[in-house]
Every structure is written in C-alpha cells, then in structure tokens.
Design a protein that fits this description.
- By secondary structure, the chain is of the alpha+beta class.
- Helix content is about 40%, strand content about 25%.
- The chain has eleven helices and 18 strands.
- The protein has a five-stranded mixed beta sheet, sandwiched between helices. A five-stranded mixed beta sheet has the order 13-12-11-17-18, sandwiched between helices. Strands 5-4-6 form a three-stranded antiparallel beta sheet.
- Strand 1 and strand 2 form a beta hairpin.
- Helix 2 packs across helix 3, helix 4 packs across helix 10 and helix 10 packs across helix 11.
- Bound molecules: adenosine-5'-triphosphate (ATP) and magnesium ion.
- Magnesium ion binds next to loops.
C-alpha cells in the first residue's frame, strides 16, 4: 500500500513562508501576506496575490503582513495563511490532519511560542512541533553541526538577523536582533524622504535595495530612478538615487547587524571561537543576497565569510532534511521547558 506522507515543515518568515513536505522537499514559497475583507472577515488572497495589493487596497480590503520581527503579530491572519497554504500543498489535509513542524526565532517568549503552536493546531494540524530557525538554517546550509567543532551561522531575514554558534549537534551561543531586510527598506524610505522630501513605498525601496544596494562602498556607482510623492506639493515626482545614497541609508542598520555578530563571537567559548575563525562564518537568509555583505562582515571581523547555496531557502531545506530523517528531527525539535 502506498503510504501517504503527512508531515509538513513550515518556515514561517516575516517576508516569506516556505513549506516543505516530507519526501518532496521544498514545495511552496509565498510572501507572508494576507488580504482580508474588513467587513466580512473573509480572506480574499494569500501570498503573491495579496502582496500585490499591499498599499493599494480599497477601503474595505486590508492586505496585512501578519508577522512582525519574526513573531506573529496577527494571529487570525496567520492562521488563515497557514491553513490556505497547507491546503494548497496537501488538498487532503482537510481529512488527513498533518503533523506540522514550524520554525521559530530564538528570542521568542513562552507566550509567543504558544501562539505559534496554537496557530498550527487551529490551522488543522494533528500535532505541532517547533524547531529553531538557526538550527534548521545551519542544517540546510550544510554545516557539519554534529562535529565537536564550532561553526557559525548568520541568518539575515526580513524581520530578524539570527545567529548561532553550534557544536555537537546543539546550539552553544545564540543571538538575534530585530534589524534585517525590512529595516533596510525602511531606512531607504526614510533617507529619500529626508534628502528629497519625497515619499516612496517600501516595496519600491526593496527593489532599489536589490538593484543597487551594497553593504560596503562599491567600486562602481550605479543609479536608479524611483517614483514617489512630493511631500510639499503632494504631486508625483521622480528622483534619482545612487549606490552611495543607498549605502548611506543602510549604514547604521548594517552596523547593528555587524555588532551583534561581534558580540556573539565575544560570548563564544575560546576553543569554539577559534574554530569559527578558521572555518569562517556562513550566511543564509534573503538578506545575505545584499551585494558585498560577505565582504563587509569579513573585513570588519577579520574572519572569512561564505554565503550558503540557495541562501534564502536554507531554513526550509533544513526542515526538509529533518522531516526526512527522523533522528535529526527528534534531536532538533524544541523540547518543552520546565
Ligand atoms: N538580492 C537581494 N538583495 C538584498 N536583499 C534581498 C535580496 N533578495 C532578498 N532580499 C531580502 O531578504 C529578505 C527576506 O529574506 P528571507 O526570505 O530570509 O526572510 P524571512 O525568512 O521571511 O524573514 P525572517 O526569517 O526574518 O522572519 C527581504 O527583506 C528581502 O528584501
Ligand atoms: Mg527566515
């Protein structure tokens, strides 16, 4: 008889939700956005479709990002999102309830943790397990976490930058900061407002960041035009921004991420820190695609820095590997405290 896999892994990220199914790997990536009819409470769109509505919805529709800084900010919208996406990858989930493993950030409180479990059950799971994002990220990035040697992973996502030094299959030191891709977008919006008196949307800011953004001063100066609204006249206006502008805009936030990495290393036991210095730091998460971020961190710490393959998908890939290998899963899921 054909056995049916009913184990699902969800990387519930601030920007993207990625779903892996046991035996099938990563099957779905959608923006963590839900569009809801305010009057009826009905869900109108989820993921890409909903993201297109962000900032341009009529009065009775709201497009919400239900996670903030890696934490559930809107429980009901998150439930709708998970239920909808799980149903998409497993239409039979209505009858055969799946077991769901959901990743959580390390700085999560007990109350927030219970909210994640609750949302999984409400979305129709038979059982909900939690796994730390950094652990999944390290596994997905291919780090040899089982060895008695230190290795370091830094996951720069949309809402948070999470990092950990691991050894012997466990997290030794972890640290996180609520500064990541979203904050860089906000920095760009703010910089353009201050310099040109023009307000642009966060989606436009994100596009600029991806196109010409760089973490360390670039050799070549690129330019890009962006449309916004002049705050004095209220009229549309196009401004031209340069690589230098964007670098200036993001400078302080990048420094905060860097400082968090340095603090983490300072807290790491010397033997493990010396392993990390030798082997280097591995970056994952969408933010690690920012140009020159590896060079910036490497120059400022004096430690080699590598970007993981398919960096945005490391956490989801780590989840798939854990789903496929029950021993890894048993060791990695978070056991109840106290
Ligand atoms: N080429 C790029 N250059 C710069 N930033 C990028 C690039 N591609 C993606 N990003 C950024 O990566 C971020 C999303 O990363 P990721 O998918 O890892 O986040 P997430 O897992 O949803 O968030 P979190 O883990 O913080 O909850 C976004 O801020 C996005 O703008
Ligand atoms: Mg993430």
């Amino acid at each position: 008889m054909k056995s049916m896999s009913k184990e699902i892994g969800i990387d519930l990220g601030t920007s993207y939700t990625r779903i892996s199914v046991r035996g099938r790997g990563l099957v779905l990536t959608e923006p963590t956005v839900v569009a809801i009819n305010k009057i009826t409470g009905e869900i109108l769109a989820v993921g890409n479709q909903a993201k297109e509505m962000l900032g341009r919805t009529p009065e009775n529709i709201v497009a919400v990002k239900p996670l903030k800084d890696g934490i559930i900010a809107d429980f009901e919208a998150t439930r709708m999102l998970i239920q909808n996406l799980v149903y998409r990858v497993m239409p039979r989930s209505l009858f055969y309830k799946p077991k769901i493993v959901i990743t959580i950030p390390s700085a999560i409180t007990d109350v927030e943790e219970r909210a994640v479990e609750g949302v999984g059950y409400k979305a129709g799971a038979k059982a909900v397990y939690l796994m730390e994002e950094v652990m999944a990220g390290a596994i997905g990035a291919g780090l040899e976490i089982e060895k008695p040697e230190g290795c370091m992973i830094v996951d720069i996502g949309g809402g948070t930058s999470e990092m950990a030094v691991l050894s012997l299959g466990g997290v030794v030191i972890e640290n996180s900061v609520k500064v990541a891709g979203d904050k860089l977008d906000k920095d760009i919006v703010e910089y353009i407002r201050a310099k040109f008196n023009v307000l642009i949307g966060e989606t436009e800011a994100e596009e600029i960041k991806k196109q010409i953004g760089t973490a360390s001063a670039a050799m070549t100066e690129e330019k890009v035009s962006v449309k916004g609204r002049n705050l004095s006249t209220g009229l549309p206006e196009t401004v031209t921004v340069t690589t230098f502008d964007i670098n200036q805009a993001m400078k302080d936030s990048l420094e905060i991420i860097l400082k968090t990495i340095k603090t983490t290393l300072e807290k790491t036991p010397p033997e493990l820190a010396s392993d990390v210095m030798g082997k280097g730091i591995v970056l994952c998460g969408g933010g690690s695609h920012l140009k020159n971020i590896d060079r910036y961190i490497s120059e400022q710490t004096g430690i080699p820095v590598f970007i993981a393959e398919s960096a945005s998908e490391c956490v989801a890939r780590g989840l798939s590997l854990a789903l496929d290998n029950i021993e890894v899963l048993k060791k990695s899921v978070k056991t109840k405290k106290g």
